[in-house]
Amino acid sequence: MKKNLFAMGCLLAVCLIFALGTKEAEARTIKLGVAGAHSGDLASYGLPSVNAAKLVVKKINANGGILGQQVELLIEDDACKPEIAGNTAMKLVSDGVDVVMGHICSGATKAALGIYKDAKIVTMSPSATNPDLTLSGEYPNFFRTIPHDAKQAQLQVKFATQTLKVKNVVILHDKGDYGKGQAELAQKYFKEAGVNILLFEGVTPGAVDYSAIVTKVEKAKPDLVIWGGYHPEASKIVTLMRKQRMDTLFMGADGVKDDTFIKVAGKYSEGVYATGPMDISDNPMAKKAKEEHQQAFGSDPGAFFDAAYAATQALLNAIEKAESTDYDKVVQALRTEYVETPLGKIRFDEKGDATGIGFSVYKVVNGQFVEEK
What we know:
By secondary structure, the protein is α/β, with parallel strands linked by helices. About 50% of the residues lie in helices and about 20% in strands. It has a seven-stranded mixed beta sheet with strand order 7-6-8-9-10-13-14, sandwiched between helices. Strands 2-1-3-4-5 form a five-stranded parallel beta sheet, with helices on both faces. Strands 11-12 form a two-stranded antiparallel sheet. The longest helix is centred in the first third of the chain and has 26 residues, at about 1-25. Residues about 1-25 have low confidence and may be disordered.
């Protein structure tokens, strides 16, 4: 009798262990972090990335997930501020994130990357363009689905000198990792092209009044103002320039190419140039992704949506191809395995930059950014 009771007890224990193990396996998920500006002035850059991740993950989970596991989104806001981004990264690491899509701004990305690097977590941004993030080799865990600013600055200078025929420029920036870095690259390439740089100066982001710098620009009489930074300051500076009846050409980078810039600057945005990711609206996958966004959220997607959609696909595809969330295997898969995305068929070079993508020049015409051919 005692033997039978003992045997029954062992059988129950085995069943309990098996049941608990099964529940644990069922509960296990692949955790995808999404970090970026989800509040504040630059939320129009970050929220489209959240929506992109939600759409990709919803489809993948509906089709059985990755490696038999569902994908779980861990969404954290850094407001595009370096002083917050570190805490955001630490929170995602402590929550057991497997890979991270983000951050959005270069300064915030840089502030977070060391934390992910120490934790051996692959991170991919759809929008952080500071060249050193990949080219320095300091962050082997970092990848991106947007070209870096050196390529963007070269395109700006080529367009300004060959198409706009400018001879004298003023370069302004917001003193940040992205804005100042982009402005310094533009300065370098303009000098090499023999263009006169009449003024190179930084302004304080979030200032109420930029009339002092606008007055300096007016006195300098440039053919073109190059802006290194984001749309909130650009919209204020352009508005002041136009109100003072200055018809000086104005060009920003991808930090300006956002519909929010047009909404804030209104009629004063007309004629402004900005570089940004190439127009991929004819790509069937880009069309499909846009339709998905319209159906799910009732609106057209915003800035960096396609790049974020591609980044989410690339990260999860790498996990699937690697058959693991192991850091080294995922990195290897990103560098060797192609993935079809709204940006086209991409993989990543040894530095972490995506292949087969580029920038275009856009101009605001009748309240819309139109690609210059």
